[in-house]
Amino acid sequence: MSQSLPSPVEVKATADSIALVQLPGGAVPWEDGGHVDVWDHVECLMALDVRGHRTRARAGYEWLKREQRADGSWAARYASDGSVLDATAESNHAAYVAVGVLHHWLSGYGDECLEMMWPTVRRALDFVLGLANPDGTIGWARSPEGSPDPAALLTGCSSIHHALRCGVRIALVMGRPDIAGEWERAAHRLAEAITAHCAGASVTSFAKVPTPSVFIDRDRYSMDWYYPVLGGVLRDKDADERFAARWERFVVPGKGIRCVDDRPWVTGAETCELALALAGVGDLERATEMVAAMQHLREQDGSYWTGLVLEDGKRWPVERSTWTGAAMVLAVDLIQGGKATGEVFGHRWAEDDDLGLLA
Q1: CATH number assigned to the domain comprising residue 318
Q2: Lesser CB count within 10 Å: N end or C end of the chain?
Q3: 228 domain residue, yes or no
């Protein structure tokens, strides 16, 4: 297994493997012939932008614009023929569009792309904030019948925090400081809830912490470990402590990270997202180690298997997921100083006090 990052040729091959799976209408499914969900679709569009597939990325954003529902949401899952498989509207899916649009603009598309996507971003984030709970968290979904589910997920809310901050940047560019202020205040309240939760759960032992939480208990999942850092909530010392508290619990040296702490299964996307979180706070050495560690999942065409079962060495699930490849492309780009990815995932823009939007 390589102990270094994939080469530029290898990264391009991965982006090309994603492009080959994209549907004629612009949607990018999980895998060839698989279903489409908006969050992973957006992740793939960012990877396409990184490696210069500008026309394909643009087609993907046009698909989002066309498919957005009247309330600002998208269905949770679409079939490859465009039919809806699951009409549930997930808040983190809708929010993530703002992350992709900001990345798209920073990739050099000019203000015209923001003008095209601004109504989409605004409706999407308004839908998300319509699911806000009194404590500042965001409920995870609205049912097909229209009923909100107030259950808050730490991973989802951390991703929504990231998206709201990206939306703030977009709103300011669009000359709407009023909307930027609304979204910034919502992001600030959400960050307070996440920070309070992490302060109660940030311990070096692996024991469960008997403290009340506003978030559903998914402590077994690695995403709940690193997403508060990836989403820009925990920085500096807080990020260092978060990583240290659970590093040995999830990281399998030379293989990547476990998806779930009590299962012998490492997954490539989670490993590369951890790399994004590490690189975003400046830990490039460990970020590089993470990307190198998951290269055993790579196929010759540049695509990646989703995961590996450590006990028997079998691929599981038996799929080569576009979003795993996309996470790798973004992680390498961030580590190597990519401008758009650096601004979006390195959170390199003005903080709350500088923007003056919290008053």
Answers
A1: 1.50.10.10
A2: C
A3: yes
Instruction: Identify whether 246 is part of a domain.
Output: yes
Residue 214 is predicted with a pLDDT of: 85
| Termini Cα distance of the chain | 52
Whether residue 30 contacts residue 40, with contact meaning beta carbons closer than 8 Å, is answered with yes
Beta-ladder partners of 141: 90, 149
Please give the residue range of the domain that contains residue 206: 8-351
Residue-level pLDDT at 269: 98
- The number of angstroms, rounded, from the C-alpha of 279 to the middle of its chain's C-alpha atoms is 14
Q: Would you state the pLDDT for residue 356?
A: 63
- Cα angle vertex 136, ends 106, 42, to 5°? 30
Number of domains in the chain: 1
Any domain includes 263: yes
**Long-range interactions of 68-74: CB distance < 8 A, separation 24+:** 68/120, 68/123, 68/124, 71/123, 71/127, 71/130, 71/142, 72/123, 72/124, 72/125, 72/126, 72/127, 72/128, 72/130, 73/124, 73/127, 73/142, 74/38
pTM above 0.85, yes or no: yes
